[in-house]
Amino acid sequence: MNLTTSLERIKGVGPRTAEQFAKAGLFTVGDLLTFFPRGYEDFSHVTKITDLKPGKVTLQARCEKVEMRSVRRGMRVVTATLADDSGKVQAVWFNQPYRVTQLKEGGEFLFSGEFEFRYNRYQITNPSAEKVSDIDASEGHDAIMPIYRAIAGLKTSLVRKVLQELQPLITMLPETLPQKVLEKEKLVSYSEAVQNIHFPATVDAMEQAKARLSFEELFQLLLASQLNKQEHGKLSGIAMPFAQEIIKSFVENLPFGLTGAQRRAVWDIFQDFESATPMNRLLQGDVGAGKTVVAGMAARQAAHAGYQTAFMAPTEILARQHAQTLDALLSPFGLKVGLLTGGVKGAARKALYAAIAEGEVDVVVGTHALIQSKVVFHTLGFVVIDEQHRFGVAQRQALLDKSPVMPHLLSMTATPIPRSLALTVYGELDISILDEKPANRLPIITKIGSPNSRSEVYKKIDEEIEKGRQAYVICNLIDNNPDNDLASVEVEYKRLRNSVFKHRTIGLLHGRLSNTEKDEVMEKFAKGELDILVSTTVVEVGVDVPNATIMLIEDGDRFGLAQLHQLRGRVGRSAHQSYCFIIPSGSQKPSQRLREIEKSNDGFYLAEVDLELRGPGEIYGRSQHGALNLQIASLADAKMITRAQKAAKAFVASGENLLHYKQLAKQVEAYQRLTTLN
User: Fold this and answer.
1) Is residue 33 within 8 Å of residue 172, measured between CB atoms?
2) Left, alpha or beta for 90 (phi > 0: left; psi -120 to 50: alpha)?
3) Which of 64, 408, 461, 478 sits at 20 to 30 Å (Cα–Cα) from 423?
4) What's the CA gap between 660 and 176, in Å, rounded?
């Protein structure tokens, strides 16, 4: 038996059980061994009901009565009466209807959860429940019990039962990390880590196993990053000498002063331009920090050196905005900016293709229409990709391939990325940060309201419109869902138009409209023809209407911090005081997340908090993060990331051959393909 052996060949796994594992994506022995627990229950200290004190408790009890009821917004509440020979206690679960079936089966259970005073009584809230008979006899009642993710209904008891059969194999697992790394970092062996992650004898053994496996996951990712950076350094590109007079005249022509952060970022880019190694830089800018101006200065320098710039944006609205901004910045110097999107058709499209090929267009702004085979550049030397995480690796590569020599690449993102995440996911990139706002911008006043405070917010919106300003109302859903009270954008649009704001002009924007319809609505709003725009999060990135000064976000507790910050950034884009009101979906006390957005306008601080509260998917993008396959490591663990990064750098510097470590090499190669930008 080895890691590639099918699970069906393990004792006790028949076709039905194998099918259950397959639904959860587990097919081989290796899959199951690396299916790590999502958490643990410590059943070593069981308390009698009569001795319960507030806090985390574990008790062994039988269920005497269980029932379920539905409450507001579609939430289902299960309550149970638990009893042992010393007394009885209430347990409550929210939105876990399966507990009814589980507890009706009878028998003794081990419950572990928070014993607290809530809703005018003491109760155990959302406890885990393990049938005593399901706990393997060899583990006893003093076990630290791993709990596995219930993917496709997979039961923890089944996973544990099959893993028991694999224990002899676990003791023989070969080492996957270089011996020098293992010794220097004082880590337990791979086989010991796998044994103690699934069958921990003590809390200490479990913590050591988690530290070892967490380090390994991050080491693989950071090593891939280091090797990508090393490979990139071998590429030859286009050296563009710094033209001081050209840039000086550009800056003097600006209708505003550059921030210190913009000056630093531009200088980073110009130094990269002078090198024969192609630039590979990420420009992070908090909302409204002026990334397009930085890209425009770099495009001016590239044009002076005789090279074209390609500027790719994820949406047509955004591409058009960038084209307008860049045209205003560059046309005074005789530079031509072209816009290529799905909306440019027929003769106009052909003429643009010809102008690009002849070198008559200096900067081409567009959507992924830029990567079509018909687009041929005369001399492409600089590529800018806005909101780069929205494009796949292949799409980014296709644009870079438009030049016979590797062009300089500037990736831009308006989502501030925490340092720990940047080190791992973007470790191969040089990073410039725009963390200052233009001098004339006032901080946005943010307030968390309640459903009862809506009328006051409407009054404030009306006051702003009366001053000649405009407003956004952001909703979570497109259609109205009868199962909950979340404000749907279409229903809210009709309600506001027919009642509260019937004396105002209102527009509707959501993702199901065609690109043409979206553009028409945004065009009207940008021209001031609409007072209020009722929208989904489609306005989250890049939409720039300086006259909009007030935003209402409905059901704000359903959004991540990073997303709330992005949405809020659609206002506060002029010298006028701006406001953002966030109304949660219920009347409960606002969460820590909402309190953070109320007190801070700093996107980088909020991104750090969001990473801790919600995990990296919110920031990096769910599909990419899913592919990272981090089960144990946390991208919020800055200490472990720094430790793994030092070890990865030392390994690369040692010149040791990665191919001597087959499993490590395989995972590193997969990460190299996933994270590379070139």
Assistant:
1) no
2) beta
3) 408
4) 10
* CA dist., res. 647 & res. 186, Å (int): 12
The backbone torsions φ and ψ at residue 174, rounded to the nearest 5 degrees and listed phi first, read -75, 155
87-94 and 121-131: which strand pairing?
parallel
Helix (H, G, I), strand (E, B) or coil at 398: helix
DSSP symbols for 482-532: TTS-PPBHHHHHHHHHHTTTTTS-EEEE-TTS-HHHHHHHHHHHHTT--SE
Q: How many other C-beta atoms are found inside a 10 Å radius of the C-beta of residue 271?
A: 12
Catalogue all structural domains in the chain, each as residue range(s) with its CATH number: 1-43+149-171 (no CATH), 47-134 (2.40.50.140), 244-274+289-413 (3.40.50.300), 445-600 (3.40.50.300)
b/e 497-510 (16+ beta carbons within 10 angstroms → b): beebbeebebbbbb
Q: Which residues lie closer than 8 Å to 589 by C-beta, 6 or more apart?
A: none
What phi, psi does 376 have (nearest 5°)? -120, 120
**Closest by CA position to 616, among listed 672, 668, 560, 670:** 560
Strand order in the sheet with 579-583: 445-448, 579-583, 548-554, 470-474, 532-535, 506-509
Q: Which residues of the chain have pLDDT under 50?
A: 137-142, 618-626, 677-678
Give the burial class of 19: count Cβ atoms within 10 A of its Cβ; 0-12 exposed, 13-18 middle, 19 or more buried.
Answer: exposed
pLDDT at 480: 62
196-225 core/surface letters (b: 16 or more CB in 10 A; e: else): bbbbbeeeebbebbbbbbbbbbbbbbbbbb
Q: Rounded distance, CA 402 to CA 371, Å?
A: 8
Q: Smallest Cα–Cα separation from 81: which of 35, 114, 49, 116? A: 49
Q: Rounded distance, CA 466 to CA 460, Å?
A: 10
Residue type at position 326: L
pTM of the model: 0.73
547/573 Cα distance (integer angstroms): 8
Distances (CA, A) of 669 to 228, 385, 494: 10, 25, 53
Residue 677 confidence (pLDDT): 45
> How far is it, in rounded angstroms, from Cα 287 to Cα 569?
5
Contact present, 293 and 265 (Cβ < 8 Å) = no
CA distance 558 to 416: 20
Q: How far apart are CA 474 and CA 335, in angstroms?
A: 38
How far CA 578 is from CA of 222, 471, 525, 563, 570, in Å, comes to 41, 10, 17, 18, 10
Q: What local confidence, expressed as pLDDT, does residue 609 receive? A: 83
Nearest Cα to 339, choosing from 354, 357, 358, 321? Answer: 321
Cα–Cα separations (whole angstroms), residue 142 to 54, 138, 159: 22, 10, 19
- Paired tokens of 325: 């901004």
178 in Cβ contact with 651 (< 8 Å): yes
Query: Would you state the pLDDT for residue 322?
Result: 93
What are the phi and psi torsion angles at 332 (to 5°)? -60, -20
Measured CA to CA, the distance from residue 229 to residue 235 in angstroms comes to: 10
Token pair of 545, please?
A: 């209407």
Query: What is the Cα–Cα distance from 464 to 478, expressed in whole angstroms?
Result: 26
Cα end-to-end span (Å), the chain: 40
Distance, CA of 165 to CA of 159 (rounded, Å): 10
Angle at alpha carbon of residue 395, lines to 394 and 398, rounded to 5°:
85
The Cα–Cα gap between 315 and 390 comes to 10
Reduced to 3 states (helix: H, G, I; strand: E, B; else coil), residue 99 is helix
